[in-house]
Amino acid sequence: METRKTIDTRAFGLMVILCMIWAIQQIAIKAAAADIAPIMQIGLRSGIGALLVWALMRWRSEPLNLQDGTWRPGLLVGVLFALEFLFVGEGLRYTNASHMAVFLYTAPFFAAIGLHLKLPEERLRIAQWLGIAVAFSGIVIAFFGPAEPPNTTESPNILLGDFFALLAGAFWGATTVVIRCSSLSSTSPTKTLLYQLLGAFVILVAVALISGQTQFRPTTLAIGSLAFQALIVAFASFLAWFWLLRTYLASRLGVFSFMTPMFGIVFGVWLLNEPLDPSFVIGAVLVVAGIVLVSGDAWLRQWFDTPGRGKTRQDS
What we know:
Helix content is 73%, strand content 0%. By secondary structure, the chain is an all-alpha fold. The chain has one domain. The two termini are 33 Å apart.
């Protein structure tokens, strides 16, 4: 029987690197937006990433069998993945990269609620419901905290961008639910990733063409951003994440996702000189606290559980 390990130094170090990469992807897309539209960036990176995943499957002699019952849920996760990044790309046209990093990572809450409704073994505990409530209060504060509308010359209509980021998180959460509740839960990670990348490539490039977001000035920044997203984000980091999921306990890994929005805020301020509103900082802290409560429930119970429950069993 396959067993998964608890977190060790290697897993922790890799998770830190992955969270930094996932935070920087928002920065890279935003920084290169003047040279290549965000939607086109994400569409092209998904196509390149899909080619790399397909090449890896061929090298491993891994069959791409569509008769195994995965093509229907595969089509669905491809659409959901595309919608997630459609709202990421559109959101980055209006909001800051640091805001995107925080609101996108509300995905664990949407996934937790969906899995609670679909799978008996994924029922939420009281502490997890508390985490969702804490995160929701953080979202409200981050959205509506400023006394004046947060629209600026640099980031017009920032609330719309934040809302798009929240929608992106919801579609990411829905993707997780479909994977967990369908035949994709037992298929190979590379095949699941290929479905997602192909869906994003086809849909996002089509949206870019229809909406006229096809500008591409081959500057160093644009090419560097595209290469980073295709090779590092869409290919290497996603495959590393799937390897971690197959090697270590998922509940232990999930709690480390809180690092991504924190890195996103730091990199946004440092690299893009994005302003920090106090209400957004407070809201972001609450969202991160909610992530820890929802994703790290099993870990936290191990830390804080007392042997009282065991004594009660013995006494009874």
